[in-house]
Structure formats: C-alpha cells, structure tokens
Amino acid sequence: MKLLDGKICAESLVADVAVKVNGYIASGLRKPHMTVILVGDHAPSESYVKSKIVSCRKAGFDSALLRFPETVSESELLAAITAINADPSTDGLIVQLPVPQHINPQNIINAIAPEKDIDGFHPTNFGRMTLGQKAFRPATAYGICKLLQFYEITVKGKHCVVIGRSNIVGKPISIMLSNDFDIGNATVTLTHIETPRELLLDETRRADIIVVAVGIPGFVTEDMVKEGVVMIDVGINRLENGSLVGDVDFTRVSSKCSWITPVPGGVGRMTVAALMINTLMAYQNNFDLT
Ligand code: NAD
Known about the structure:
The chain has ten helices and eleven strands. It is α/β, with parallel strands linked by helices. The strands form three sheets. The chain has a six-stranded parallel sheet with strand order 1-11-8-7-5-6, sandwiched between helices. Strands 3-2-4 form a three-stranded parallel sheet, sandwiched between helices. Nicotinamide-adenine-dinucleotide is lined by residues 140, 163-166, 168-170, 191-193, 195, 213-215, 234-237, 267-268, 271.
C-alpha cells in the first residue's frame, strides 16, 4: 500500500503557481487576489478558510476575508457578492459553505460571476465542465484528478466507482473521470443513498478506483473492495474524541489498496491547491495571459 500524499502534491502544485505569479509580478502586474466570504462561526468552516488564506500566501496571492454574522440576510449577502463581482481587484470569489439555513445556497452560488467562480459551482462553469469546455472545475474533484496525475495513476480505461452524488464532490468527479479529459476516460458508476446494498457491493468489489464522499466514518470496509484498488477518501468526519477520520475504515482497508489517501492530509489539501490553480486561471483570464 502506498499513500497518495495530498500534502506533498499540494505543496508542489502551489509552488508551481507561485513561480508563475512571481513572473507576472516581475513583469509589473499586480498579484492575483482571492476573496473569501464567511458567514457565522461554524468551526470547520473557520479552519477551511484559514487553510485557504495560508495557501494564498504561499502561492503569492493577496486575499481578503469578509465576515458576516449568522443573522445576515440573503439580500445583504447577495449585495456583497454583486459588489465583489464588479470589483476588478478581485480575481476569485468563494462563499464558504454551508451558509445558515435561512439562506438558499443555490441563490448564493448563482450570484457569483462565473468568471470569478473559482469553486466551479456556478451552473455556467458546471455546465461547461460537463460539456468538456474550458471552465473552473469544482475544486475537490479537480484536486482529486491532480492527485491521480501527480502519482501517475492510470485512469483511462479503468472502472471507477463513485459513492455519493453531491453537487460539490460525487457528481462532478463522476463526470470528470468519465469525460474525455487529460485525467479521465474511465468507465464510471455513480452510486448514492438509493443504490441497493447488493448493487453497491457488486460495483465496489470490482472497482479499480473508488472515490467515496458520503460523510460516514468507516463506511467502506475491507469486504467491499478488491486487492489493489486505488482508494480516494473524500470524507472528513470529526469523532467525539476530536480526531478526524474519512469515510474508509483505513486500518483494515488500506492493506488491500495499491494506493490510498490519508485523512487528514489527502483530498482536503488537494481541494485548497485546486482553488489556487483556479484562481491563477481567473487572473490569467483577467489579464489575457496564457
Ligand atoms: P453530502 O453530505 O452532500 O451527501 C452525501 C452523499 O452520500 C449523498 O449523495 C448520498 O446519496 C450519499 N450516501 C449517503 N449514504 C449512502 C449510502 N449508504 N450508500 C451510498 N451513498 C450514500 O456529501 P458531500 O458534501 O460530498 O460530503 C461528503 C463527505 O466529504 C463529508 O464528510 C464532507 O465533510 C467531505 N468533504 C470533503 C471535502 C474535502 O476537501 N476533502 C470537500 C467536500 C466534502
């Protein structure tokens, strides 16, 4: 079993971004700029936002964090997004999800200008990505592809099983791995909560690559996988004792895997790295750079 180390891969990708940024600054351009909107005081969101800001610094970007109280109205938030959309000094905008229950997340996502939507959640980017056109690819799914590429894992022609169909992970990774992309051309089965258990097991037991994003600790057990599987564990679950675990029973499953992502230190790091790549792309688009 070998680890797909998201920390090593992310550091390498962010260092590549920083080299490009240094070149642009040396030629007289301003730094790329990412703005993050954070609503309320959801502890995991605080930690995700912090790692994004730290990563911006490593990539050579400027960043701004706009905080709103839990009680902010949807219209106030939409007004802030409209202002950032119109501000030429911001290249990329993220609204950290989840937002409070009285705010419709889809209205928020739809309000972000597609050219600043570095999370890749706006229908324009999601649609373009699905059609195989140039787009900001949803960051977690893009990060997974970058990790597979970094470790030279063959995806083309493989049988991939995705567990979970969320708009932010399961659905986009199933599309990206099956598309005719540089990291794609796999045969993909997308499973979800309504997939009968026997069908799920049939699929996972013959999968070459499994991507699991369900949010249930220990969901993937050793009897569900074949020897040599590549396991991508997207889950981030905090246990009562405070430790972070994924959706895979790592201790027992890892010995059957050819490659596996750790949690923490796997996909989470790659999500942030993919955001840096997307922000650089937004900046390059802004300045007509290639
Ligand atoms: P979600 O919580 O929106 O949805 C869970 C998905 O799991 C649903 O599509 C559901 O159909 C599926 N599911 C639930 N029970 C199932 C079952 N018994 N069999 C098959 N499918 C089942 O999903 P999400 O937002 O993608 O989050 C999933 C996990 O990934 C969470 O732990 C979350 O914290 C984590 N996450 C991590 C990152 C990262 O950067 N590493 C990014 C996003 C989400």
